[in-house]
């Protein structure tokens, strides 16, 4: 019974393709990542393009963390401790994350958090 | 998340997924949406990873995230990853990592190295099944030959189960949301039943990337957490993705 609660569930859709209408926000742009370039430089073009949106999502995560710990200590902890963790990450991931932090201007600890969020989220 | 690998009646493997993320991470009352899910949508990109100017693999990703959740190694295999909940979860892996026990791998770094380095479907499956992880996960893998489609259910240390496509048993697709396939999903979050109902109604004769998109567009498989849909076909090396919306009324998860 929990699987049939229209309008939150619906019968099988058809003719949704090609994507259009209210459930289709838009296409996705393509970028090339050159694995022959140094890890630190691989994401520069992409992050230069997406810097504003990345800063935006990190601010939303910061706001969420501060909602739990208003003193800001949680974010402080992330900014102080996670940079040390980047040294322990296997190659090329540590260097790539440094490069993203350089280009975006987002603190290194917060870029590390973004990249290990799957493991952290289980908390 | 919902991931599905299906074999059509010509033996092609088709792989589709909805990437859902942002549960309980802040609800925007005015817009009736999850804050983080909406903030992630502008970051969705398709990536073509090249070496010697040759495509090694392609992926749909969030800019700033160096691991992989969705990808294809053209003409070889396709791979998606869905979250698996377990008390023996990632926080234990992180604690062990901090304490210096670093023989496990971070989940999305494993998927990235499999996409980058695995030489075949079987090679990929072995790496995903046997590599020690920091957090549990589901890996959904499609290949380039008939019968090559599976769900690898992983704890941090073990491969608990591998469910494969088996045409002799009438299993022409495998489908994973976020619950072990041998258990009932949480009754408040059963996206599996509606998804499988639509796959069964589509039938193997009619399955295509187009009809797979229909299944992934059916509520609650499409929900407020869905950021993008990706469709992949290994035999053609094709990856296509679309940023999604789920206007109200729509299931929050």
Task: Please provide a written account of the structure.
The complex is a heterodimer of chains A (123) and B (253). The mean pLDDT of chain A is 94. Chain A is mainly alpha-helical and 123 residues long. Chain A has helices spanning 44-68, 73-86, 93-104, 108-115, 117-121, and strands spanning 24-27, 30-34. Helix content of chain B is 22%, strand content 33%. In chain B, strand 13 and strand 14 (238-244) form a beta hairpin. Chain B has helices spanning 35-40, 90-98, 107-117, 121-130, 192-202, 209-216, and strands spanning 2-7, 13-20, 27-28, 33-34, 44-51, 54-62, 70-73, 77-83, 137-142, 149-154, 159-164, 173-176, 226-233, 238-244. Classes of the chains: A mainly alpha (123), B alpha+beta (253). Chains A and B meet through strand 1, strand 2, helix 1, helix 3 and helix 4 of A and helix 1, strand 5, helix 2, helix 3 and helix 5 of B.
How is this fold's topology laid out?
The complex is a heterodimer of chains A (123) and B (253).
Chain A: E1 24-27, E2 30-34, H1 44-68, H2 73-86, H3 93-104, H4 108-115, H5 117-121
Helix pairs in contact in A: 1-3, 2-4, 3-4
Chain B: E1 2-7, E2 13-20, E3 27-28, E4 33-34, H1 35-40, E5 44-51, E6 54-62, E7 70-73, E8 77-83, H2 90-98, H3 107-117, H4 121-130, E9 137-142, E10 149-154, E11 159-164, E12 173-176, H5 192-202, H6 209-216, E13 226-233, E14 238-244
Antiparallel strand pairs in B: 1-2, 1-12, 2-13, 3-4, 5-6, 6-7, 7-8, 8-9, 9-10, 10-11, 13-14
Helix pairs in contact in B: 5-6
């Amino acid at each position: 019974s929990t699987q049939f609660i229209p309008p939150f569930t619906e019968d099988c859709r058809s003719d949704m393709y090609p994507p259009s209408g209210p459930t289709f926000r838009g296409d996705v742009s393509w970028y090339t990542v050159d694995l022959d370039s140094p890890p630190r430089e691989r994401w520069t073009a992409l992050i230069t393009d997406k810097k504003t949106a990345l800063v935006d999502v990190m601010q939303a995560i910061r706001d969420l963390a501060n909602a739990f710990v208003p003193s800001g200590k949680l974010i402080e902890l992330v900014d102080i401790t996670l940079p040390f963790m980047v040294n322990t990450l296997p190659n090329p991931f540590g260097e790539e994350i440094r490069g993203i932090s350089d280009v975006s201007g987002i603190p290194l600890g917060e870029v590390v958090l973004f990249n290990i969020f799957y493991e952290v989220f289980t908390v | 998340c919902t991931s599905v690998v299906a074999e059509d009646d010509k033996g092609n493997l088709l792989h589709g997924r909805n990437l859902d993320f942002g549960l309980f991470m802040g609800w925007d009352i005015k817009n009736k949406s999850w804050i983080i899910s909406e903030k992630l949508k502008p970051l969705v990109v398709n990536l073509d990873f090249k070496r010697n100017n040759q495509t090694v693999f392609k992926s749909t990703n969030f800019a700033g995230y160096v691991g992989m959740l969705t990808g294809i190694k053209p003409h070889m295999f396709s791979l998606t990853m869905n979250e698996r909940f377990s008390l023996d979860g990632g926080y234990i892996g992180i604690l062990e990592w901090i304490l210096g026990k670093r023989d496990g791998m971070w989940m999305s770094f494993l998927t990235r190295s499999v996409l980058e380095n695995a030489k075949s479907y079987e090679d990929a499956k072995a790496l995903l099944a046997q590599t020690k992880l920091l957090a549990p996960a589901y890996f959904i893998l499609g290949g380039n030959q008939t019968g090559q489609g599976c769900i690898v259910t992983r704890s941090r240390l073990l491969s608990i189960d591998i469910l494969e496509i088996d045409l002799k048993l009438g299993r022409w697709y495998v489908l994973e949301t976020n619950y072990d396939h041998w258990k009932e999903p949480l009754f408040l979050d059963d996206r599996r039943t509606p998804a499988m109902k639509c796959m069964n109604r589509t039938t193997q004769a009619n399955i295509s990337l187009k009809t797979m998109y229909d299944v992934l567009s059916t509520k609650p498989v499409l929900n407020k957490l869905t950021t993008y849909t990706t469709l992949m076909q290994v035999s053609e090396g094709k990856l296509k993705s679309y940023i999604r919306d789920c206007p109200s009324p729509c299931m929050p998860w």
